[in-house]
């Protein structure tokens, strides 16, 4: 029953997000991820990006250390976790955060800006911008854009569309027939392929700054 409940809620979040993930990909030309937190890992629920996505160290159903990813930092900062589990932090690159002492001030900055960055922390040459999805203090997931560092801009050119997408996804979730409960986090993926076709939504198209 518990696993079935998690699957239903995960599918509802995925269905609410999918149209906006495609829109964000079209607007930015970058790889778009939808991800959730599972302990100290980020789990990828969706990836949209075509050939560019194949070059990234991510896949649907895969996981990466949360402290090395913008998505993980976005969720951790919003949930204000104690970081007790983050004792020995493995580095993926020479830019990765290596200790809880380094992670805490980074999460403080994320809270202040409402968005998280990854500058080659997970994969050499790849950057990422992410924003939490959910009500304030109860992030259930994150949306992000990733790509080669020369194509990344860590300012409002990417921050604005990513944050607007995160807010739009949560509006879609809350306007659905049953609200996604943050208490069901962390959600562990139960399959490695995209979910069923998304439901129709009446949300307006995003306008990017």
Keywords:
alpha+beta; 5 helices; disordered C terminus
Would you kindly provide a written description of the structure presented here, covering whatever features stand out?
With about 210 residues, this protein is of the alpha+beta class. It has helices at about 1-30, 50-55, 70-80, 100-115, 155-175, and strands at about 30-40, 40-50, 65, 115-120, 125-135, 140-150. It has a six-stranded antiparallel β-sheet with strand order 3-2-1-6-5-4. Helix 3 crosses helix 4 (about 100-115). The termini are far apart. Residues about 180-209 have low confidence and may be disordered.
Helix share bin: 25-40%
- Give the helix tally: 5
Strand/helix succession? HEEHEHHEEEH
Low-confidence region ranges: 178-209
Strand content: 15-25%
Supply Rg: 16 Å
Instruction: Please identify the structural class as seen in this structure.
Output: alpha+beta
Whole-Å distance between the termini?
A: 44 Å
General form:
globular
How many strands?
Answer: 6
Question: What number is the mean pLDDT?
Answer: 84
Strand order, largest beta sheet? 3-2-1-6-5-4
Described by strand count, sense and barrel closure, the largest sheet is: 6 strands, antiparallel
